[in-house]
Design a protein that fits this description.
This protein is an alpha+beta fold. 35% of the residues lie in helices and 26% in strands. The termini are far apart. The mean pLDDT is 96.
Amino acid sequence: MQLRDYLQRIHWVGDTRPTLETLDGLMRAQNHNVPFENIDIQMGVPLTTDVEAAFEKIVHRKRGGWCYEHNGVLGWALAEMGFEVRRISASVMRQSVGANAHANHLTLIARLPGEDTPWLVDAGFGGSLLHPLPLKESSAHHSPFDVGLRRLDDGHWQFWENLGKGEITFDFKDAPADERGMAERCHYLQTDEDSSFVKRLVCELRRPDAHLSLRGRVLRETTDEGVSERLLDSADELLAVLKDELKVDAPQVASLWGRICEQHEVFVAQS
């Protein structure tokens, strides 16, 4: 794994000294150039929490990935630059899912050399968090998302994001990741029929002031002005959207079109 290859992949030509400006810039560059996507899961290709495998996929094959891949590679790169980085196992929607949410997300805590302030860093939550957040109670607008951190009574921190339809959250502690737990959850999330990653194709990409989200046949663009949606009508249109708008060149996805249409009908019926 070569740092220069990673920097070329995310189109970063700025400073690589371990400063807050570098941390912020790298996080934005990865969000803008590497999509969050579950194509391999839909294709039945096994995924792991291994950083080298994620690097090969994201950097060399110019694909996207999910949290274990995105933040695995970002954490490695930050450590290479001299940041102090801690891998954190987090729990998405713990308040509703309970113990089953344990370690279903990988996030990062980074510190600048010689400084004590911890920063929440995450490029693997679908693109809502565009800038690092200091580990303190706060809120911010990362257009088009409202985001923030709150302290929970049980000692966890809770990150929240909101696009106007309610909060999506993950809870965590500033403690070393449960690597075994994440590996087990990584396997579950890509194999269990109840997993949202198994149920539908997902691909998301962050723009400076907008968020693109493809879920099955539905392409959604969200800005501060509102939401626009488009229903895709063919496998060719799907491939074009993935390549031209979401920065994923994955012709193998055409073979999924029939299943994507079936999944869409199930989703509509259940909505």
